[in-house]
């Protein structure tokens, strides 16, 4: 009797980013071409697993997907199986629906579930793995803040968009002799801000990891003016906060387990700078623009490699792991080691050292080292 076909599930969770479709395509093609296996895709992340919303995917369905941004499966960043939001009256209550997810998974006869996502999705996947779900993780996020991998797909595409924006802001800043603030996403990690600052020639770069000091920002603008450079570009990570202060929350999403959404800190900084320096300051918040559009060549290749590897892992029965890129080699790490952690910018990172060497201000006093500032001045 012919052996039953093996079956893999796939879902995309968390905020979308360029490259998700490239992974889905790679998963479907590798499953079908190398193993004759079937793939089913769940709609809207873990929501689809719990509500049993899915569709079969074959080679035809993934044709032309490589260059498409977003995700054909849909995604959700408000759905944690362990804190599943359910509307009761006017408010949400959070229920543990993980058992329903496990029941649906087993009923569908799945070998494993490939979960493509960021920190929230990996944490949920690790929890589901503990409850017995055979899961393989694939890391994505424009924030580039997942531990266990050197880089996540989505980051390069977002960085290209952010750099292009900084380039465009540069010319108009020069023409009008203004201080221009460009705010980029990146929640708790400043990789996008630092990368766009380095690649776009930002003069001041403010990261969530290094609380800024407004006087130090002003000092850098004055130094530039003294050198005859009568404009400045400030690249601001959305999670940047003043020394002793808090991040700027733009909204709270009621049904989200991590309710806080950031945005707008650059407006606060701009009005402070204008008041102190008496120079016109303008703000551009890039927001979701960085999450959209077609993936870069780098992200297409990385997403494809990770998708292929995720299927190989699944077929070997190597569950409970996240595929990763380390030193340009594909590898995998236990998903439990990734859950609940973030890879943040550190003062000794080569990008930080490079920025300081080329005269970028990180919005901190220049009289002491960054490490000293962080350990002795910042509370
Ligand atoms: O984690 C990815 C990310 O784009 C962050 O950079 C940002 O803070 C957040 O998602 C925005 O989420 P939402 O799409 O819910 O506004």
Which SSEs are present, and which pair or pack?
Blueprint: E1 7-12, H1 20-35, E2 38-42, H2 46-51, E3 54-57, E4 84-88, E5 91-95, H3 98-107, E6 112-117, H4 119-130, E7 135-139, H5 155-176, E8 179-184, H6 191-200, E9 204-206, H7 214-226, E10 232-237, E11 249-252, E12 260-262, H8 265-277, E13 281-285, H9 297-316, E14 321-326, E15 329-334, H10 350-357, H11 370-377
Parallel strand pairs: 1-2, 1-6, 6-7, 7-14, 8-10, 8-13, 9-10
Antiparallel strand pairs: 2-3, 4-5, 11-12, 14-15
Bound molecules: 6-O-phosphono-beta-D-fructofuranose (F6P).
Relevant terms:
7-stranded mixed sheet, 4-stranded parallel sheet, 379 residues, binds 6-O-phosphono-beta-D-fructofuranose, alpha/beta, 20% strand, elongated
Briefly summarize what is shown.
This protein is α/β, with parallel strands linked by helices and 379 residues long. It has helices at 20-35, 46-51, 98-107, 119-130, 155-176, 191-200, 214-226, 265-277, 297-316, 350-357, 370-377, and strands spanning 7-12, 38-42, 54-57, 84-88, 91-95, 112-117, 135-139, 179-184, 204-206, 232-237, 249-252, 260-262, 281-285, 321-326, 329-334. Helix 1 packs across helix 9 (297-316), helix 6 runs parallel beside helix 10 and helix 7 crosses helix 8.
